[in-house]
Amino acid sequence: MLSAAGVGSAYGFRYGLRYLIGLFLGTNLVSAAVISGLAAVLLASPVVRTVLLIASVGYLLYLAARIAFAGAKIAFIEAREAPGITAGILLQIINPKAYAVNATLFTGFAFAPQNLLFETGAKLIILNLIWIPIHLAWLWAGVSLHRLNLSARAQRRINILMALSMLGVVALALLSVI
Fold it and tell me: The domain containing residue 41 runs over which residues?
């Protein structure tokens, strides 16, 4: 969601919408990997799980550092050109949080166990009905934030807050595996 706000802030609504389409497609690819069992097969190996955890934590720490030390320019993300659909898809595919959310949703809350196809389809629809407006709201927030023309001090504070949020995600990820 922070990346949607960042793209909106840096590149505007039109480019942000292209990026969101990629995030949406990537999210649904992760859902398909979880539903099909592919994610479970890949994550069944302790070595693969550990490597992915280390890579994910390392990437989140890297992003937090880049945001925190961006100075007086709001820097949820930084790129020379607007990320597009492909970037959105790839980000979701490497996003460990996407796998955790999907695994929990599709395996943890049975409401129609007698009809797995109906339940899975309903969950996909509900997931997307929630996902779309939330991410559009974050995109809008990023576009709106850019329009505010905040002082350098305010932008620095926002960067620090976003970096601390990323560190919170890292801490939660580490606590979940301990």
Answer: 2-177
Say what angle helices 2-11 and 13-36 make with each other, to 10 degrees: 160
What is the tens place of the pLDDT at every residue in 23-46? 999 999 999 999 999 988 888 888
* SS3 of 38-105: HHHHHHCCHHHHHHHHHHHHHHHHHHHHHHHCCCCCCCCCCCCCCCCHHHHHHHHHCCHHHHHHHHHH
Total count of domains within the chain? 1
Tokens of 90: 């790839």
Mind listing the pLDDT tens digit for each residue in 95-139?
777 888 898 899 888 899 899 999 999 999 999 999 999 999 999
